[in-house]
Task: structure prediction
Amino acid sequence: MTLQEVLESHRETTPNALALVARGDDVEIASVGGETRESVFAIASVTKPIVGAAAMLLVQDGELALDDPIATWLPELANPVVVRTPSSPVDDVVPATQPITVRHLLTSRSGWGFTADFSLPATEKLLADAHLHGSEDLALDHWLKRLADVPLLHQPGDGWLYNTSYDALSALVHRVTGSLPAFLAERICAPAGMTNTSFLGEAMPSGAGGLQSTADDLLAFNRFLLSSGLLPLLAVDTTSAAEREAAEIFLEGQGWGFGGCVDVAEVDPWNVPGRYGWVGGSGTAAHVVPSQNLITVLLTRTAMTSPTPPDVMRDFWLSAVHTL
Result:
């Protein structure tokens, strides 16, 4: 199917959508529901690669090192505790055996985050007290105190968990630079030519899911990754086979790099080794395939009902493989 046919075929469940596929300078656009290239969408977790790139710029600048303890800048998180087992009550804890580092946040191994089981006591507390939804008008200091009161599910570095490490990463970049939104604007948006990307909430900018953007801005971002030399630093699998299996609900057999997923197995026709990007719970996705000079962006206004990408997203990826 063509891109337009894909969107039309899912119009009943996804009435508003814009799809973009670029191979080099050749760009194809399709849309339904009156969306245009100027339409701004909440991109949810597609925020993660952008914030991951920002953190890696600080590493390149020498402002951060991957193995630096985050407590240097986030003293609120200096003394985490860990539940004795993942299913233990939140007051059955032991001290962390090592500090949480910048690397732990980038690789989603801080010990805060989600597994497939959202009923774990520590996960329930995380959801109730410290889970950001992208647009909260919540002071950074207040959120850090809330997070510090949530026990880790495992020792820092011991396993992959989804999402929360990237809110902590945004707090870290915010503290190091003085302003995460300003740093993104200066070091990523301006050089990339991203003119319509901003945080939904300025008080506590959520690095896990707080940006809004356009298809052309996400195209520009992924072109920036290709041209700046950042992509090889981000698109490196950091997971073990056991971690990929445990996180199947999120990763679908692929690995996690810095900021996003990287394809390591040809599970589906659109999987290409080295393909990098991520999906957002608001029904969004953006990926770059460096070996094919291919960039794909899908933006919708239909929230995902599970971590599994919806049919429209899968059909879009399948069509993109055959586009241009």
Notes: The chain has a mean pLDDT of 96. The chain has two domains: 3-42+195-321, 61-172. The domain at 3-42+195-321 is CATH 3.40.710.10 (Beta-lactamase).
